[in-house]
């Protein structure tokens, strides 16, 4: 299947990714889950191997590859650690991509370059306490004051918040416009600015090695040149950024499911019950066959949508289909993997329970599966 999806260069990168994930990521996965921390050493190693800037041109410090290679990186890393998959997905798809796509040349040199080289980590902040999926109605505001904007408000569930040095933040810049997104603008905000503080990390069910926290703005003064795109363009930027983000999160879900499947497959080949190995029971064989089919179907969805994105074609509905189908598949498959392990699967001695917890978030962030069904249905009925 890989030979059909990837060319020679992609296959070489995939081989490197698999070795890197096995050597550098997998040994720390359980520890990061238990202790809930962002691992800077791992981030630096990813940067040294060009993973933090895979799809960006070399002139901006990137590896000069494409989005297919990036999506494959998320898949391979997530097979062994969902948290690491989240770290890189947010950093590249949600923080770096909008700067590359909508930023000025000066912004690309100032912000995209350190993100691509891995000198800094990127974050994306849209959700607010009273507004989750409805990002047309936000309360955080940026009011023009000469050559600056004064920002007040708060954000929640910001991935990479704390370790990140560069944040893409969405807020209202027009008090007269409410509810239709026309007054929404995007800004690039750096960590450490006066009036900008970061809350305590959230205590989560899964991806516990991936830091999520709130952002607070109290008369934070930011320069007008920090605006990304044009004033009032925030809705378009958020919508297009999240489309690509859904591909990354679908790849994460796919990787988590594959990792759980591989663990379960190895286990049933070794485990004996009632005098024979689990793999010899037809009911177990049927489960494994169903799991394999679901994974391959999901891979085709993910890489078909990614190819559309790579070719500059409309992939809006394809990304929604990926997000809904693959995330639900991952939740179902990781639950089945735990079941195949029996009581052992419910313990932390085996990674499948962590994978099941990690899979759940893929049904929620960058747009819930319910929101994706709305997008798909609207397109069908149009």
From TrEMBL:
Protein origin, superkingdom: Bacteria
One Pfam match: Acyl-CoA_dh_N
Domain Acyl-CoA dehydrogenase/oxidase N-terminal: start-end pairs: 8-119
UniProtKB keywords: FAD, Flavoprotein, Oxidoreductase
Cofactor: FAD
Segments forming domain Acyl-CoA dehydrogenase/oxidase C-terminal: 232-380
Residue intervals of the Acyl-CoA oxidase/dehydrogenase middle domain: 123-220
Residues of the signal peptide: none
Homology family: Belongs to the acyl-CoA dehydrogenase family.
PANTHER family: ACYL-COA DEHYDROGENASE
UniProt protein name: Alkylation response protein AidB-like acyl-CoA dehydrogenase
Species of provenance: Virgibacillus litoralis
Lineage per the UniProt record: Bacteria, Bacillati, Bacillota, Bacilli, Bacillales
């Amino acid at each position: 299947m890989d030979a059909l999806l990837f060319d020679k260069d992609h296959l070489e990168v995939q081989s490197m990714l698999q070795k890197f994930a096995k050597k550098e990521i997998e040994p720390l996965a359980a520890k990061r889950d238990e202790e809930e921390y962002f691992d800077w050493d791992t981030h630096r190693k990813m940067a040294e191997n060009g993973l933090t800037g895979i799809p960006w041109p070399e002139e901006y410090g990137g590896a000069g590859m494409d989005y297919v290679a990036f999506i494959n990186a998320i898949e391979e890393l997530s097979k062994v650690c969902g948290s690491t998959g989240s770290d890189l997905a947010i950093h590249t798809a949600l923080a770096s991509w909008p700067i590359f796509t909508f930023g000025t040349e000066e912004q690309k040199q100032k912000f995209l370059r350190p993100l691509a080289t891995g000198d800094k980590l990127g974050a994306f902040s849209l959700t607010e306490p009273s507004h989750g999926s409805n990002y047309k109605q936000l309360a955080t505001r940026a009011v023009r004051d000469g050559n600056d904007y004064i920002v007040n408000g708060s954000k929640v569930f910001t991935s990479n918040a704390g370790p990140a040095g560069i944040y893409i933040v969405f807020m209202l810049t027009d008090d007269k416009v409410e509810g239709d997104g026309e007054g929404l603008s995007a800004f690039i905000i750096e960590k450490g600015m006066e009036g900008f503080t970061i809350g305590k990390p959230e205590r989560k069910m899964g991806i516990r090695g991936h830091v999520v926290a709130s952002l607070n703005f109290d008369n934070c003064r930011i320069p007008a040149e920090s605006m990304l795109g044009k004033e009032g363009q925030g809705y378009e930027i958020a919508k297009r950024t999240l489309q690509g983000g859904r591909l990354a999160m679908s790849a994460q879900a796919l990787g988590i499911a594959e990792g759980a499947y591989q663990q379960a497959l190895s286990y049933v080949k070794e485990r004996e019950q009632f005098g024979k190995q689990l793999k010899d029971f037809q009911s177990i064989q049927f489960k494994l066959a169903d799991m394999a089919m679901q994974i391959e179907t999901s891979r085709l969805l993910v890489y078909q949508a990614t190819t559309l994105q790579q070719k500059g074609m409309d992939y809006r509905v394809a990304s929604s289909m990926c997000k809904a189908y693959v995330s639900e598949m991952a939740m179902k498959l990781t639950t089945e993997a735990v079941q195949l392990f029996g009581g052992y699967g419910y313990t932390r001695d085996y990674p499948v329970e962590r994978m099941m917890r990690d899979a759940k978030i893929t049904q929620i962030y960058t747009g819930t599966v319910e929101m994706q069904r709305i997008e798909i249905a609207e397109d069908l009925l149009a």
